[in-house]
Specification:
By secondary structure, the protein is an alpha+beta fold. Helix content is 29%, strand content 27%. It contains 14 helices and 20 strands.
């Protein structure tokens, strides 16, 4: 399905004829008023949400007519304070809601819906639209959608990123199925639980503590029930949003963009983290291997981990690197290497990724005989996400805690 298309590649449309393709001109982008956000990625997030919600709302009005009057679910003036923390825009049609989830990346393997749009009473939607925005080529497409029920039944909850994720193969690609097969004035009830109240004293403490740290995702710092109340409470949400904006003028330019691992390393040096070269010493061949093994980033941080057991191979180097990606997320790499004269890791050394509660996130990786490294499957998570890395051998173990 296409609308006013002149610049989109015909083969691309031919390969995906069921997608909704909408073209927009540079002149349509320029008048969009950019709300102030506390850091560049939030600014980009607000832009993607504005252009996608504007164009899709226009398309809905053309398809459904003015009788149903598709409209933004939240007042327009409230949206910047939502986009500061959460990706997505809610549109109301009749008595039902749909949430647009825009991304600029080309990774379309799954739709990732922030938990806020699913589990907060009054924020949950009937439909969730996966939208790709190509700003340089001036087009967007809705490449699939799912319902609330499908998301809960077929999707899975990612505790690291606090998102519900559903694979592309489980999405419905033809948006007309949603458009013309539904009674927009009928709505099924969803089993949301209203979040508990948070004391004003605690809210003010959070605002003072985190309000001037625009690089951190507050949604990752709080238990979700408390965060849900905080976010849905318009006064508190706007207050910390304004506080973070004031903090922008008090932070250095480097703090207003994604920190590279080198900057992150500087903050961690007191805790034993150093450059890879300083930890691995003169082992040039190993340093070269680190830089090139499956594109492991050069700017990695390393720390000697000693399990404190009577074993020549009881010390290892834990390597961690982070690379900023789209949608305010960070791609994390984790490896373990032998140090000193050891050429291999001890058999049965186990590497685990845990969430902040200690729950296992990935299948453990176990060293075999003569392994010269082990590594976790790289993962993406929003800035501010806490996680843990656990190393264990026999009865000894060490856990390192991180926050992106």
């Amino acid at each position: 399905m296409t609308q006013n298309l002149t610049a989109i590649s015909t083969p691309l449309i031919d390969l995906n004829p069921d997608h909704l393709w909408i073209e927009f001109s540079p002149s349509e982008i320029q008048p969009i008023e950019q709300p102030m956000q506390s850091h560049p990625l939030a600014q980009k997030n607000s832009f993607l949400n504005q252009i996608s919600s504007q164009k899709i709302q226009q398309w809905l009005e053309e398809e459904l007519g003015k009788k149903l009057s598709p409209r933004l679910s939240f007042p327009e003036k409230d949206l910047p304070s939502i986009w500061e923390f959460v990706n997505g825009t809610s549109i109301t049609i009749g008595n039902q809601r749909l949430v647009i989830i825009p991304t600029e990346g080309t990774d379309l393997e799954a739709l990732e819906v922030p938990q806020e749009w699913v589990d907060i009473a009054g924020w949950e939607a009937d439909y969730y639209l996966a939208v790709q925005v190509e700003t340089e080529a001036n087009w967007l497409r809705v490449w699939g959608y799912t319902t609330y029920q499908q998301l809960k039944a077929r999707g899975y909850y990612n505790a690291i990123s606090k998102t519900y994720e559903i694979e592309r193969q489980d999405l419905i690609e033809e948006i007309n199925v949603m458009l013309f097969a539904q009674e927009w004035n009928c709505r099924e009830s969803s089993p949301q639980i209203s979040p508990p109240e948070v004391s004003e004293e605690k809210v003010q403490s959070l605002i003072q503590k985190h309000g001037k740290q625009p690089g951190y995702s507050l949604r990752m710092l709080m238990p979700f029930p408390e965060w849900a109340y905080f976010l849905s409470h318009g006064v508190w949400r706007k207050q910390i949003y304004q506080h973070r904006l004031r903090g922008v003028t008090e932070t250095s330019p480097l703090q207003q963009v994604w920190q590279k691992t080198g900057s992150w390393l500087a903050d961690q040096s007191k805790q034993g983290w150093h450059s890879v070269e300083s930890v691995l010493g003169s082992r040039q061949s190993l340093s070269y291997q680190v830089r090139n093994h499956q594109s492991f980033p050069e700017d990695a941080a390393a720390k000697i981990i000693d399990l404190g057991i009577e074993l020549k191979q009881s010390a290892f180097a834990l390597l961690v690197a982070q690379v900023p990606t789209e949608n305010q997320k960070v791609l994390v790499y984790v490896q373990v290497h032998p140090v000193g004269e050891n050429a291999h890791l001890p058999p049965n050394l186990q590497l685990e990724l845990l969430d902040e509660t200690g729950k296992l996130v990935q299948k453990p990786v176990i060293a075999r005989h003569y392994d010269h490294l082990i590594q976790l499957k790289r993962f993406k998570a929003p800035r501010g996400t806490p996680f843990q890395i656990k190393l264990s051998l026999d009865e000894a173990n060490v856990t390192e805690r991180f926050r992106l």
